[in-house]
Amino acid sequence: MTGTVAERDAWRGGSTLGQLRTLTARQFRIVYGDRRVAFFSLLQPVIMLLLFSQVFGRMANPEVFPRGVRYIDYLAPALLVTTAIGSAQGAGLGLVRDMESGMVVRFRSLPVRLPLVLVARSLTDLVRVGLQMLAVLGCALLLLDFRPDGGAPGVLAAMLLSLVVAWSLIWVFLALGAWLRSIEVLASIGFLAVFPLMFASSAFVPLELLPRWLRIVATVNPLTYGVEASRELALGWGAGATAVAAVAASLGLTAVMAMVAVAGFRRPPGEGSTRSARRARLRAAARQQQDDEQQEAQAGQQPAALRDAPLDLAHRLPRQGPDEGVEGGPHQGARERGGKET
Amino acid sequence: MNGNAIRVRGLRKSFGDVHALAGIDLDVRAGTVLGLLGHNGAGKTTLIRVLATVTPPTAGTAEVAGFDVSDQGLEVRRRIGLTGQFAALDEHLSGFANLVLIARLLGAGTGEARRRATELVEMFDLGDAARRRAGTYSGGMRRRIDLAASLVARPSVLFLDEPTTGLDPVGRQVLWDAVRKLVADGTTVLLTTQYLDEADQLADRIAVLDGGRVVAEGTAAELKATTGSRSLHITLAEGSEPGAAARALRDAGFSPVADGGNPRTVVVPVAEAADLVEVVRALVDGHTDIADLVFTEPTLDDVYMSLARPGTRAAADGGKSG
Ligand SMILES: Nc1ncnc2c1ncn2[C@@H]1O[C@H](COP(=O)(O)OP(=O)(O)OP(=O)(O)O)[C@@H](O)[C@H]1O
Ligand SMILES: [Mg+2]
């Protein structure tokens, strides 16, 4: 059953929303298809929470924190934000793996809107981050006596804010993945980025406690502001000005990084940057001109073009030269001649 | 349908300093099969990728199903199917789910998509294995699902890059039958292959690619007729000197070569059957006795050997059209 001519090309490509739904469903099956992976990805931030709260909580001097704020209250809102880094890196790695699997070549030959592949990826990883955040909050509330002054609305707001920050980080890594296209490079960048971003910030200790140089790094680290904003909302500090700024900055970053990522993703597979492709095009144009001139010059001496007159081919193939003896197979002589003529 | 389904003019594709395609002109009539032959690195995959809009060309134009690959990529993608040289499957999904995924992306409803996937699973004889994760498939299974995936849309132009590499003889036969059926329905197929019998079996016309250029194009019979590697295998009787026979033949304007195996055999390439008389006369005049004489027609292998061989740029330069 191959279908009749009438059915041919009947499917012209689904709607944007339909394709997004299909691609997102596919991503979900990849990310959550293996229960073990899903389980450990949830366990990871919970372990961070348990370790940090127990290890640092013991040493934490209550005087360095605002009055009435215990270490768990200080830590949990920050972990909502830092959890996003690992998942964002995972998004970039997943994208590169997809590109290497040849699946992207398939998508490129189908009427699929390519940016949707990235959007689907970002949504899937956003959901994963959301689940991780819920795990962190659940564990903090149930096991570690997390009692934020902002109450339920504050915690919910902090989580939404963290999701916005996470989305921008996911797009940063999608852009890196789309341009670098190498799991190794991305993994090492991830390692370099994750730890400084996490620790050279106010996530685990107040800025004032950091050595001077680290404090400077932490002050320019955008994550510090995400962490501060999350605390502001969860702990009911201030009016939420930091939060508004953090959301605005994250959305701006998302927009820029989405454009960068899509541009990188659109580049054909297995090729360098678009700039080097443009350079190659220019070079090829120059060479074509050169070739054409050469060809015109040779036109008088060269036999008729082969493909125009295939039946002339026999006469084109040079006969065996008189000095070439009976030695050698039938093709060897021809190859040597070919070599000489080049 | 009539006219050309694929029309390529002056197509070039360069990767830095590598000129994978160095000026291709090619036409494929709608509803026919073009077999693309060429040694490793000749540019077959690159040509298919450009035609399937996966990679943009560096220069030149190409139309597929009446649409330009550079300017009307979406229209092209709506009408083609591609089975690349390397399988493009989602390893996390089952073979069946892969097919459903593609149908859904093409705009099929859930029911339609499942029906189409079932149809293709039957067509390629995939059976229960289609329900397993694609990551667990053997090479041949993967290939078959990949082929099925390119047919989901019932495309009018189908690109197959070495479709039967890694298939067992049964799988190959199944694929050949499928291609024949598709062509009978009016599908245009461009396939690359390293198996010359496959080109002989399936292709209406054959193009030989070398160094990014089409160095020969025609029906299998035309190409065979043009290589000039019809030859006479002459085994000399005891007492006759192969050297003397070769000398006599050279004097008569032929180019005898030794047969690899038998020292008493001389092989004489001839352009046409009528040359047989000349050869025999030259040998008789040279007082050589003939024990045995066999006339062999060229095979597609001979065409391939004489045209598409790394380093044979003489043919490429001559074959380039201006
Ligand atoms: N992404 C790329 N970057 C650089 N060079 C490339 C790229 N893709 C192909 N090439 C080069 O272009 C030439 C043609 O390659 P192509 O894959 O089209 O050959 P092919 O005829 O399909 O060979 P095979 O029979 O081995 O599949 C080769 O020299 C190859 O190295
Ligand atoms: Mg190839």
UniProtKB/TrEMBL annotation, chain A:
GO CC annotation: ATP-binding cassette (ABC) transporter complex
GO molecular function: ABC-type transporter activity
Compositional bias (Low complexity): 296-308
Main location: membrane
Location of this chain's protein in the cell: Cell membrane
Short name of any one Pfam family annotated for the protein: ABC2_membrane
Domain of life according to the entry: Bacteria
Topology with respect to the bilayer: Multi-pass membrane protein
Swiss-Prot/TrEMBL keywords: Antibiotic resistance, Cell membrane, Membrane, Transmembrane, Transmembrane helix, Transport
Annotated transmembrane regions: 37-56, 76-96, 116-143, 155-178, 185-205, 243-265
Ranges for region Disordered: 269-342
ABC transmembrane type-2 domain location: 36-268
GO biological process terms held by the UniProt record: response to antibiotic
Record-stated family: Belongs to the ABC-2 integral membrane protein family.
Designated name of the protein: Transport permease protein
Species in which this protein is naturally found: Streptomyces sedi
UniProtKB/TrEMBL annotation, chain B:
Keyword tags: Antibiotic resistance, ATP-binding, Cell membrane, Membrane, Nucleotide-binding, Translocase, Transport
Domain ABC transporter: 6-236
GO cellular component: plasma membrane
Matching Pfam families: ABC_tran
Membrane topology: Peripheral membrane protein
GO biological process: daunorubicin transport; doxorubicin transport; response to antibiotic
Coiled-coil ranges (or none): none
Subcellular location field: Cell membrane
Molecular function terms, GO-annotated: ATP binding; ATP hydrolysis activity
Family the UniProt entry places it in: Belongs to the ABC transporter superfamily. Drug exporter-1 (DrugE1) (TC 3.A.1.105) family.
Protein name per UniProt: ATP-binding cassette domain-containing protein
Classification of source organism: Bacteria, Bacillati, Actinomycetota, Actinomycetes, Kitasatosporales
